[in-house]
């Protein structure tokens, strides 16, 4: 792998991993880990349209994620069905449509598992700008979302607009997921939203430490996985699985630390 491509990939990995871990800390707190994973698959039809009509697939993926999130949010308000139920239905539909639209096996593999060899300066700049912005915006609403988890009545009484706040947060998750697709693909990018936060939760004593560690573990998982993929330089080994394996190692270490700290 070219040194320049590896450098761009590592920068993207750190920024996207950090933001995914931070935003994912709320997903794990809300016990919506499976929702975070399923949301990543919703982008597949958008990627397919990008491939079919020769425009940047990530833009198509984010557009589909954005529209799907708004539709799911609105359906949840109208039908009173749980967000998990609606995302599960949308996930299976999107996965089926995406696979039907992508007839090229190589393109499908890239969409599902990522391809860091095709990242460049535009993707790197986007990650550097969007990822910190997503963290900052999430930090602004973090306590509001946590308060609504504890008591919706209390949150409403303090002026929190729960529905709008949740929609804004989910749109930020969609944006970060779209950025991460280039690294891990649609099948595995949900990992970055779930496992780093799960690792941080097992060894955190307060909310601030938990959110910070989630971000750090996300960055470490992405960085180490992409770095390993760059050094192995195997055309049949996409970076996504290596990012997952790196994250699982971090998770197991965190669990071991928790176990050893018990009296």
In a few lines, what is going on in this structure?
The chain has 263 residues and is an all-alpha fold. The protein is built from eleven helices and no strands. The longest helix has 42 residues, at 162-203.
Give the helices and strands as they follow along the chain: HHHHHHHHHHH
Indicate the CATH class: Mainly Alpha
The general outline is globular
What's the end-to-end separation, in Å? 48 Å
Count of helix runs = 11
Q: Would you give the CATH topology? A: ABC transporter involved in vitamin B12 uptake, BtuC
Number of domains: 1
Account of the protein in words:
The protein has 263 residues and is mostly helical. The mean pLDDT is 82. The protein is 85% helix and 0% strand. α9 (162-203) crosses α10 (207-232) and α10 (207-232) packs across α11. The longest helix has 42 residues, at 162-203. The chain has a single domain, classed as ABC transporter involved in vitamin B12 uptake, BtuC. The protein contains 11 helices and no strands.
């Amino acid at each position: 792998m070219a040194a320049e491509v590896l450098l761009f990939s590592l920068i993207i990995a750190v920024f996207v991993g950090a933001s995914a871990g931070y935003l994912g800390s709320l997903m794990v707190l809300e016990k919506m880990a499976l929702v975070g994973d399923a949301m990543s698959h919703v982008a597949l039809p958008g990627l397919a349209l990008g491939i079919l009509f020769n425009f940047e697939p990530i833009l198509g993926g984010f557009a589909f994620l954005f529209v799907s999130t708004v539709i799911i949010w609105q359906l949840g308000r109208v039908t009173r069905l749980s967000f998990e139920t609606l995302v599960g239905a949308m996930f299976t539909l999107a996965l089926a449509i995406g696979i039907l639209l992508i007839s090229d096996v190589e393109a499908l593999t890239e969409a599902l598992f990522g391809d860091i060899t095709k990242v460049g300066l535009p993707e790197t700049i986007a990650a550097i700008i969007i990822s910190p912005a997503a963290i900052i915006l999430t930090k602004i609403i973090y306590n509001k979302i946590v308060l609504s988890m504890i008591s919706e009545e209390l949150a409403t009484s303090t002026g929190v607009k729960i529905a709008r706040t949740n929609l804004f947060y989910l749109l930020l998750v969609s944006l970060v997921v779209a950025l991460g697709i280039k690294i891990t693909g649609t099948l595995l990018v949900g990992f970055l939203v779930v496992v780093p936060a799960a690792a941080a939760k097992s060894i955190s004593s307060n909310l601030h430490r938990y959110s910070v560690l989630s971000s750090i573990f996300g960055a470490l998982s992405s960085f180490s996985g992409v770095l390993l993929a760059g050094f192995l330089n195997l055309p049949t080994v996409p970076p996504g699985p290596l990012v997952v394996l790196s994250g699982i190692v971090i998770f197991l270490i965190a669990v071991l630390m928790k176990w050893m700290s018990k009296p």
